[in-house]
Amino acid sequence: MGGQSTRFGRDKASFAVAGRPMALHVAAALSACLETVTLVGECRAHFNTGLPAIPDSMPNAGPLGGIVAALGHARRSWSVIAACDMPLASSAQVASLLHAAAVCEAQAVIPRTPDGRLQPLFAAYHRSARSPLASALAEGRLKLARALDAVRWTELAVTDGTGFTNVNTRADVPLLP
Questions:
Q1: What is the C-alpha to C-alpha distance for residues 60 and 142, in angstroms, rounded to an integer?
Q2: How far apart are CA 44 and CA 50, in angstroms?
Q3: Looking at 4-146, which runs of residues are DSSP E strands?
Q4: Were 2 and a residue from 84, 132, 141, 169 both cysteine, which residue would form a disulfide, CB within 3.0 to 4.6 Å?
Q5: Is 137 helix (H, G, I), strand (E, B) or coil?
Q6: What is the residue range of 121's domain?
């Protein structure tokens, strides 16, 4: 579901973009390729999606707490973890991650967009990554970039970064196509 949305000024997951909550844009991209889509984090009562939801593994632990929680509930070997604030996400992104995951020996597949940025909040994680990420969380390594040092990951170069556009502030919303 996301963090505390402090820069945005309100809950981002339920904020409507093109008439639909941001989180549901992301869920639609995921559900086109996955059997189950589960929301992770504080699921506010006013935002009823009809999707299953689980709490973060540790309150206020940021994205890492959500990833650890998701992997702890995973029914499959690989999970696609996606932030709720990427309303331009596509099923093609999800399919690309799943394909890369199926043929790699890493514990995570992290996209790198053409601007050079890693996208660990729209990535595939093997359930074997849960234990080392949980250890990093327990050690206080809350920054995802630092926690990723605990797992074997591979980079997935992407040629179009549009779907990875995230909304951090309200000023970002008018910039969406």
A1: 10
A2: 12
A3: 16-17, 20-21, 39-40, 53-54, 78-82, 108-112, 122-126
A4: 84
A5: helix
A6: 16-162
